[in-house]
Write a structure and sequence with these properties.
- GO terms for molecular function: nucleic acid binding.
- It is found in: Nucleus.
- InterPro entries: Homeodomain-like_sf, RNaseH_sf.
- The protein contains nine helices and six strands; from the N terminus they run H-H-H-H-H-H-E-H-E-E-E-E-H-H-E.
- The protein folds into three domains: about 50 residues; about 40 residues, Arc Repressor Mutant, subunit A, CATH 1.10.10; about 150 residues, no CATH class.
- With about 270 residues, the protein is α+β, with helices and mostly antiparallel strands.
- The strands form two sheets. Strands 3-1-6-4 form a four-stranded antiparallel sheet, with no helix packed on it. It has a two-stranded antiparallel sheet with strand order 2-5.
- About 40% of the residues lie in helices and about 15% in strands.
């Protein structure tokens, strides 16, 4: 056990002054007799304490280098913030407690808190499992009949921007030491939202075929969207006539009920 300032002062008093000074060996033996439950001090330790007092006039520890240690009260406040609101962000906690964001992150890391992200999961009905089997059989049959069938499929992805503060998978976190498997049900068919669709093609497609397949599928929607941005309040978006476009080649892909969507934390 390291010696604190009080222990060092006690050793100095044992050394004594003038003609009543004890040797280092006598000081070590006396300290051990007074503190039998502690590790005995060595003669070199007694020598360093005496030399430090003669040079500096005190036996306090010198100021430590580096960043100061995080206060225990601050650490408890950060943990309490995460317990009260598991969805809080590092920036929000930093602003509320008036401490740096790096300090908040270090505290979460120290206590093994992890920001679990949500994952989009479609709710499955009883007949959805048969649809999945039918879809697999459909794709296998067409691929056996036409080896170039897979290369002619247009794959698309989309990003939805909700205007009502709907859950954002990129910004929603759940701070916890263990995966809470948190779930919350949402309905994706909300009127006030804008979808951005991005199409991806296999490299095996020719440039002419790619230009044909990547041409706008919803030209009327683009004009309506531009009109919305400049002229129509967001409250009136649900009254707009949005047209529907179709690609030249279609495959059955709707498996699961998209109206009932659940979000759960990633494992």
């Amino acid at each position: 056990m390291p010696l604190n300032e009080r222990d060092r002062i006690e050793i100095l008093m044992m050394i004594g002054v003038g003609d009543r000074m004890r040797t280092q060996q006598e000081v070590c033996r006396l300290f051990h007799e007074m503190h039998p439950d502690r590790e005995p001090v060595s003669q070199s330790t007694v020598s360093r304490i005496e030399r430090k007092y003669r040079e500096l006039g005190h036996v306090r520890d010198a100021p430590r280098q580096g960043r100061p240690k995080i206060n225990e009260n601050v650490q408890q406040d950060v943990i309490l913030s995460a317990l009260e609101n598991p969805h809080c962000t590092v920036r929000q906690v930093s602003r509320d407690l008036n401490i740096g964001k790096s300090s908040v992150s270090n505290i979460f890391k120290k206590v093994k808190y992890h920001p679990y992200r949500v994952r989009l999961i479609h709710e499955l009905a009883e007949d959805d499992f048969d649809r999945r089997t039918e879809f697999c059989e459909y794709m296998m049959d067409h691929n056996n009949q036409n080896n170039g069938f897979i290369a002619n499929i247009l794959f698309s992805d989309e990003a939805t921007f909700f205007l009502n503060g709907h859950v954002n998978r990129q910004n929603t976190r759940y701070w916890s030491q263990e995966n809470p498997h948190w779930m919350q049900e949402y309905h994706t068919q909300h009127p006030q939202k804008v979808d951005f669709v991005s199409n991806c093609l296999f490299e095996t497609c020719s440039s002419e075929r790619a230009d044909e397949m990547c041409s706008p599928l919803y030209p009327d929607n683009i004009e309506v969207f531009d009109h919305c941005i400049h002229n129509i309040p967001t409250n009136d978006l649900n009254t707009l006539p949005i047209s529907v476009g179709y690609a030249s080649t279609t495959v059955p892909s709707k498996i699961g009920n998209e109206e009932n969507t659940r979000y759960s934390t990633k494992t």
